[in-house]
Amino acid sequence: MRPLVLPRTPRSAVGRLLLTALAALALTFAMLTVAPAPSAQAHGWISDPPSRQDLCYTGAVKDCGPVQYEPWSVEAKKGSMQCSGGGRFTELDNESRAWPRQALKTNQTFTWDIVANHSTSTWEYFVDGKLHTTINDNGAMPPKRFTHQINNLPEGNHKIFVRWNIADTVNAFYQCIDAYITPGGNPAPTTPAPQPTTPAPQPTTPAPQPTTPAPQPTTPAPTTPAPQPGNGSCTATVRAANSWGSGFQGEVTVKAGTAAVTSWKVTVNGATITQAWNSVLSGTTTLANAGWNGKLAAGASTTAGFIANGSGTGLSATCTAS
């Protein structure tokens, strides 16, 4: 009986199979090592008491750079102790600026505004660089507005530094508040001007009096008429400040025409608005002025922001005023 002989695979076929397997393994390794870490999709900031970026956003501090348009975007890698997080808004790190001190209580409530939430690991509150309080959210999603109660803050002048650590990325969001802390939240004292200790010398000889009376004007001085109620027109421009997924954050700029206006209303085309600030949202496309920014002098302007669904392209806006 002849022995059973199995067919032999040609050497060239074995080589091709081996090369194919090695190539697939190398491609898999490259994808694992090159894939970038996900970036945070969350955006938010402390609005009360005002953080440095909030002061820039409201115009209380001028010349802040781009952060004045997006205070919710102070994002960088975790672990930094800089107000900017070491990111792009370096104006926030400038300690030589006269950042206004906020009156805080020793048991203080901090209000956060979130424009795009994300799962959160921890919130860390530091006082003068020393960790004071950690709040563990265990991956929870924060609401659009919420508060933290931080107790037993030390009295006096201090710098409050806050890190919002995102759960599933390498990034965090950063806040700094320049504070004057008292039990009752009293404002920082002002330094009075020094008073002279030696009285100024008094003249011993009376000053000469004029013998000829000063001429009186024959034409009455012009008077400035009181401003009239606004009845002018307005224009509006709209832009997408940044976007994520199926939504974006937009900004509307309203400008009065050649006459003052007392109120304005803007219709945004190309977006479905879900949230607005510095304005009152009506429906999903119309923004009306808030109580404090409706009156505009001739040629003056104001801005309002919003969150909307959509891509943020093809936007337009119309404005009506009274």
UniProtKB/TrEMBL annotation:
<dbReference type="Pfam" id="PF00553">
    <property type="entry name" value="CBM_2"/>
</dbReference>
<feature type="region of interest" description="Disordered">
    <location>
        <begin position="185"/>
        <end position="234"/>
    </location>
</feature>
<keyword id="KW-0326">Glycosidase</keyword>
<dbReference type="Pfam" id="PF03067">
    <property type="entry name" value="LPMO_10"/>
</dbReference>
<keyword id="KW-0732">Signal</keyword>
<protein>
    <submittedName>
        <fullName>Cellulose-binding protein</fullName>
    </submittedName>
</protein>
<dbReference type="InterPro" id="IPR004302">
    <property type="entry name" value="Cellulose/chitin-bd_N"/>
</dbReference>
<dbReference type="GO" id="GO:0005975">
    <property type="term" value="P:carbohydrate metabolic process"/>
</dbReference>
<dbReference type="InterPro" id="IPR012291">
    <property type="entry name" value="CBM2_carb-bd_dom_sf"/>
</dbReference>
<keyword id="KW-0378">Hydrolase</keyword>
<feature type="signal peptide">
    <location>
        <begin position="1"/>
        <end position="26"/>
    </location>
</feature>
<dbReference type="InterPro" id="IPR051024">
    <property type="entry name" value="GlcNAc_Chitin_IntDeg"/>
</dbReference>
<dbReference type="InterPro" id="IPR001919">
    <property type="entry name" value="CBD2"/>
</dbReference>
<feature type="domain" description="CBM2">
    <location>
        <begin position="227"/>
        <end position="322"/>
    </location>
</feature>
<dbReference type="InterPro" id="IPR014756">
    <property type="entry name" value="Ig_E-set"/>
</dbReference>
<dbReference type="GO" id="GO:0004553">
    <property type="term" value="F:hydrolase activity, hydrolyzing O-glycosyl compounds"/>
</dbReference>
<dbReference type="GO" id="GO:0030247">
    <property type="term" value="F:polysaccharide binding"/>
</dbReference>
<feature type="compositionally biased region" description="Pro residues">
    <location>
        <begin position="189"/>
        <end position="228"/>
    </location>
</feature>
<dbReference type="InterPro" id="IPR008965">
    <property type="entry name" value="CBM2/CBM3_carb-bd_dom_sf"/>
</dbReference>
